[in-house]
Amino acid sequence: MILDTLAAPATFLLEVKKSRFRANASAVRNAAEAMSWLREVSVPDATHNCWAYRIGADYRSSDDAEPGGTAGRPILAAIDQQGFDQVMVVVTRWYGGINLGAGGLARAYGGCAAECLRTAQRLPLVDLAEAEIACDFALSGTVHSLLPAFQAEKIGESFDEHGLRLRLRLPASMFEGLAQRLRDLSRGAATLTIHEADGA
Question: Which of 44, 56, 148, 155 is most buried, taking the most CB atoms under 10 A from its CB?
């Protein structure tokens, strides 16, 4: 399943028994970016700024002094149920004087986050792979002309005694197709291999 991230930040307002809730959602690429964005959108004089993010297998949430499990987890559940990844949602609450109870809080936080994401502009996340082509100098022009058809972006190029080495970034789903095309064109002389990220 291909998940989505947000094409642009989104906001949604909700009022429940005089308490006001405002969800702010944004795409984030890592935990540091998520925390930076939390500082940017949190309202210091609001009653609570509860939040959650999902970045692949990495996720965190905070109830920000609301009763345990009534805010952060429902926000995270909304992110997952809406099919998002690399997203953070901060739901700010201004208390209106009427207690909502644990169930009411969970519904309000989760519902506000879910509606914010439901109405937001989505951007499909494409699983990208880094790869390296090794081929003879004579094939250089042919290899370069293949790249656009496979949505491959050149990120590095070098030469050694064996010929050209080309570093690429391309959708993982395109890898096998490009590898096969290279084999066909070069009679097996050109190779495409996954490039392992340094430190991975």
Answer: 155
Task: Give the model's confidence band at 196: pLDDT under 50 very low, under 70 low, under 90 confident, else very high.
Answer: low
Mean pLDDT of 176-195: 85
Q: What own/partner pairs with CB < 8 Å and gap ≥ 24 does 102-106 have?
A: 102/67, 102/69, 102/70, 104/16, 104/17, 105/66, 105/67, 105/70, 105/71, 106/69, 106/70, 106/71, 106/73, 106/74
Residues ≥6 apart with Cβ < 8 Å to 86: 5, 27, 28, 29, 54, 55, 56, 125
Q: Give the pLDDT confidence score for residue 44 in this predicted structure.
A: 95
The two tokens of residue 57 are 């297998």
User: Whole-angstrom Cα distance, residue 6 to residue 23?
Assistant: 14
Q: Residues 177, 178, 184, 185: what is their CA dihedral angle, to the nearest 10 degrees?
A: 150
What is the model's pTM?
Answer: 0.68
Sequence ranges of the domains in the chain: 4-124, 128-194
Structure token pair of residue 39: 């500082």
CATH 3.30.70.240 fits 128-194, yes or no: yes
Name 166's Cβ contacts closer than 8 Å, sequence gap at least 6: 132, 133, 135, 143, 154, 156, 157
Average pLDDT over residues 155-182: 86
